[in-house]
Amino acid sequence: MAAPGADIHLYTAGTPNGHKISITLEELGLKYKTTHIDISKNVQKEDWFLKINPNGRIPAIVDSTDGKEKSIFEGAAIMLYLCQKYDKEEKISYAFDSDEYWEVVEWLVWMQSGIGPMQGQANHFYRYAPEKIEYGIKRYQTETKRLYQVLDDRLASQASTVLSPSAASGPWIVGKKMTIADLACFSWINLAEWAGVEVDQFKYVKKWLDTINERPAVKKGLDVPEKFTIKETMKSKEEQEKYAKHHSEWIMKGQNADQVKHK
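Above: the chain's sequence. Below: its structure in token form.
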């Protein structure tokens, strides 16, 4: 059920960083509208958007629920904000300053400073770089796998020490329920194959991933702001190459422009 009077505008694209916010909004049942930011055309660098997020990246939200516009950027900040303000029933969060709250913050920051950047670089060197640099590919794929193992070990520990027999859908990263820590990590790990990383070797992560993918709110959130089709693309080598080539062109164009601007 939508929160009464919620008036949230999400600026996003169909990427892991965008998905974690649309999924959070769906899990909370919040009313929101969406603007698709076409990052292939550098819309995120336009002046109007920089007033919302000076870093020129998605996602960002503007919350007008209280009658004035409040803009929030950076995925972890948005997730914490939404839970603090709207998750009164603690559906996907814990009470502020509880031990579990700070554990969620730890794992949220861990994802933001680890899995996101490392897997993002693995994507770049494996799929988009104009030349295949084996060192870059191996470095970032290896670090991504190392981080997946950290998560797998955490979930294994949770299964043995926290999980109750009735909580068949777990284990979760913190406590006995799914939280924004899980959603933040999920959004990236859900696209592991695009970075050339296989999830099947991580037993607990694979089960956790499959469980989250079955949630109705997650399925809805993945289709924001456009239909989630990349997993279908990955079934065909030809389609993979076409998709990678298309995105490589605008990524490198943007990178070259930044290199000129920031000499």
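DSSP finds ten helices and four strands in the chain.
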